[in-house]
C-alpha cells in the first residue's frame, strides 16, 4: 500500500462577521498540499467544504459577500462538530495555512487544531512577491497565473472551497521557493510591507523614503507598519534587510 504523504492543509472560512464570539463560522473549505517524490510541493487530493450552522442570523452585509443564507445552514452541523475533523487530519498534517491566517486563527482554536503551526500566505507573498500590485488572494491569482489552476474550480470567489483552492496554489509555489520553517517563521511575526500604504510617500518602496518620514512610522498604530519601519531603519544601520531575501539567504 502506498504511504500517504505528509500534508499542509489550506483552509478558508466564511463567517457571519469579523470576530468571535459575536460572529460564527458558516462554511469551511480545505485543499491539501503535499511534498511529492520529486521533492516538489503539489496540490494533493480533491479538497472539500462543509456548511456550518453559525448559531446566529446572517447579517445582510456578509450575505452580500458569500451569498450563504440562514436557510442554507439551518440544518447544518455546529462548528464544534465539524472543526476538529477538518482542522486536524493527524498525524499527517505538518501545518495549517490560510490567506491572512490571523482571521482564521480567531475561530480555529488551538484545541481544535491540536496545536498546529500556521502559515499565512499573505505575509509570505509580501516577502516573496513584493512586486505584486496587491496581495489579496484574487489579485495574486490573476497577477501570478499559477500553473494548473482551473479557472472554474476557483469560482465563485468568497466561498470556502474555491478560495482555499486558489490559496493552495499560492502556498504550493511559496513552498517551492522557501522552506516550511521559513514560511512559518515569517507567519509568526508582523508583516513586512513592500510599499508605504499612506501619506505623502504612499506607494514608494520603504528604502526610498527619507529617514525623517521613516521615523514617524515607528509609532504608528499598525504593528505591520511599525515592524516594517523598524526593519528598514535597522537595514540602514547595517542590521537587516527589507523586501525579498535572496535564494541563498532563504537557505540559511
TrEMBL record:
GO cellular component assignments: cytosol
GO terms assigned for molecular function: 3'-5' exonuclease activity; nucleic acid binding
Pfam family for this entry, one: RNase_T
The protein's Enzyme Commission number: 3.1.11.-
Name of the top EC class for this enzyme: hydrolase
Stored InterPro entries: Ribonucl_H (IPR013520), RNaseH-like_sf (IPR012337), RNaseH_sf (IPR036397)
UniProt key word Cell membrane: no
Coiled coil ranges: none
CDD domains in the record: DEDDh
Keyword set, alphabetical order: Hydrolase
Name of protein: Exodeoxyribonuclease 10
Organism: Sphingomonas mucosissima
Amino acid at each position: 500500500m502506498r504511504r500517504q504523504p505528509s500534508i499542509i492543509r489550506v483552509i478558508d472560512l466564511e463567517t457571519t462577521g469579523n470576530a468571535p464570539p459575536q460572529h460564527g463560522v458558516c462554511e469551511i473549505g480545505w485543499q491539501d498540499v503535499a511534498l511529492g517524490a520529486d521533492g516538489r510541493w503539489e496540490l494533493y487530493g480533491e479538497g472539500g467544504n462543509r456548511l456550518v450552522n453559525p448559531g446566529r442570523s446572517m447579517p445582510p452585509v456578509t450575505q452580500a459577500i458569500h451569498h450563504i443564507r440562514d436557510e442554507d445552514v439551518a440544518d447544518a452541523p455546529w462548528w464544534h462538530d465539524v472543526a476538529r475533523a477538518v482542522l486536524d487530519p493527524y498525524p499527517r498534517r505538518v501545518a495549517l495555512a490560510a490567506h491572512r491566517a490571523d482571521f482564521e486563527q480567531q475561530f480555529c482554536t488551538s484545541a481544535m487544531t491540536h496545536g498546529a503551526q500556521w502559515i499565512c500566505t499573505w505575509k509570505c507573498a509580501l516577502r516573496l512577491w513584493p512586486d505584486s500590485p496587491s496581495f489579496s488572494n484574487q489579485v495574486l491569482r490573476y497577477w501570478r497565473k499559477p500553473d494548473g489552476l482551473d479557472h472554474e474550480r476557483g469560482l465563485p470567489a468568497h466561498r470556502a472551497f474555491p478560495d482555499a483552492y486558489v490559496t493552495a496554489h499560492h502556498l504550493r509555489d511559496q513552498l517551492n521557493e522557501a522552506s516550511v520553517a521559513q514560511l512559518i517563521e515569517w507567519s509568526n511575526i508582523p508583516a513586512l510591507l513592500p510599499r508605504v500604504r499612506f501619506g505623502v510617500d504612499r506607494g514608494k518602496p520603504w528604502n526610498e523614503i527619507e529617514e525623517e518620514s521613516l521615523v514617524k512610522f515607528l509609532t504608528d498604530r499598525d504593528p505591520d507598519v511599525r515592524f516594517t519601519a523598524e526593519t528598514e531603519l535597522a537595514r540602514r544601520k547595517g542590521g537587516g534587510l527589507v523586501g525579498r531575501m535572496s535564494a541563498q539567504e532563504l537557505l540559511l
